[in-house]
Structure formats: C-alpha cells, structure tokens
Design a protein that fits this description.
Number of helices: 6
Radius of gyration: 20 Å
Shape: globular
Helix content: 25-40%
Oligomer: single chain
Distance between the termini: 60 Å
Order of helices and strands: HEEEEEEEHEEEEEEEEEHEHHEEH
Length: 225
C-alpha cells in the first residue's frame, strides 16, 4: 500500500515537473525565443531566460536533456561593468547531445551534430560533428549516420508501431538487443510530448519516408558487396 502511494506521488511529481517545464518554454517563446517546426526539445533544456529573443532553433532540430543555451556572458562584468550578449542559432536538422553547453555568439549547422557533454564556443559548420570541451570537429554528421546505419539489419530493427500495438513486448525487445547487442527503433511514437510545433501524423510519415530511403540505399550497398 505504501509502495503504491509512493508510485502515485512520483507520477504526480513527474507530471508537475513536465507541465512546469512546458509552461516555461511557452513563456520563453512569447518573449521572443524562435522555435521552428518538428523540433524535439527534451525536458530541462535551460534556455537563457534573460535574452530568449536572441536564440533561434530551426526546423527538425533535436535537443537533449539538460542542454544549456546561453546568449549572455557576464565573465568580465566585475572588471568593466558590462555583460557581453550575442545571438545563438541552431540551424535546421542539427542535433545537440545531452548536457552540452552552447555559448553566446555561436551558430550551429545546418545539419550539424554536437556530442553529449560538449562545450561549444565557436561556430559549427554545416554537416560537421563536434565533441569535447571546447568542442572541436572530429568527423561529419553524414559519416556518423552512415556508420551507425551500417549496424542496422532487418533482424534488429524494431517498428515503433509494433511496440505501441503490443505486438512486440518489452521482453521481446530485450531479446533482440541481447542477440545483436544493439537495436534500432523505426519511426517515432504516435504521441510524444517533447515535440514542439509538430503535426505528429505528418512527422511520423516523414520519418517513415526517411527510413524507406535509408533501407533502399542500404540494401543496394549490401548487394554490391
């Protein structure tokens, strides 16, 4: 009984934390934060509350949990009595990994990748992948996509719709991962509260189209080998 009560309290706390996070996001957008279409913005992304109107996030970007995006820098305030401010742009199709820090004046992308835990203090060119503190280029985003995609086979690709309909159970998903050490989930959930400015049906169709193009290209490459 006590355990059930604790679970209920935890569910209420989680729900409250999520609602508070989305209310904060809506407030920042009202104050000038620009967020494009089909943006995946996870919970607890900290966006500069002093200068949200200097921050722009483009279409189809994905931003992980606990990312910090700053448009101001008060490092030298004690010496000169001023705070430096500069815009931040995260352009279309870019991916920002969990716990990364984006500093003022930085433009990322389009279609660039910032690895988890990175500190970005300079521009990231189109299509590049960066990592580290300070973040530096180490490959291209397309190379990462190709490398990871090469590990996907029919036997370790899980269709999210099968999971949602209960056709594929949690135990079966674990079994697939046990056999292959890695698995891939095709498409996106029917409903996901972390998407912003998104028609989920259209975006799910878009994700399926991406997968179909990947699958055709992948099959052709394997036939050539």
């Amino acid at each position: 009984m006590i355990l059930d009560a604790l679970k209920q309290i935890n569910r209420l706390f989680t729900y409250y934390a999520f609602k508070k996070d989305r209310m904060r996001l809506r407030s920042l957008i009202k104050r000038g934060l620009k967020v494009g279409k089909n943006v995946y913005l996870f919970q607890d992304v900290e966006i500069d509350s002093g200068y949200p109107y200097l921050i722009e996030i483009g279409d189809n970007c994905r931003i992980g949990k606990n990312v910090l995006i700053l448009a101001h820098d008060a490092t030298v305030f004690s010496g000169i009595g001023m705070t430096r401010v500069a815009p931040v742009k995260i352009l279309e199709g870019s991916f920002i990994g969990q716990r990364s820090i984006i500093l003022p004046g930085v433009t990322i992308g389009p279609r660039a990748m910032v690895a988890a835990g990175s500190v970005v203090n300079r521009n990231v060119p189109e299509g590049r992948a960066v990592a580290g503190n300070p973040a530096r280029p180490y490959t291209t985003f397309s190379e990462i996509i190709e490398r990871m995609g090469s590990e996907a086979f029919d036997s370790n690709i899980i269709d999210i719709e099968d999971v949602e309909r209960g056709v594929l159970t949690a135990d079966e998903v674990r079994s697939i991962i046990d056999r292959h050490s890695i698995a891939f989930v095709k498409s996106i959930p029917k409903s996901d509260p972390f998407y912003v400015n998104t028609d989920m049906d259209k975006h799910r169709s878009y994700a399926n189209d991406l997968y179909a193009r990947f699958k055709a290209l992948s099959d052709n490459k394997r036939k050539e080998k």
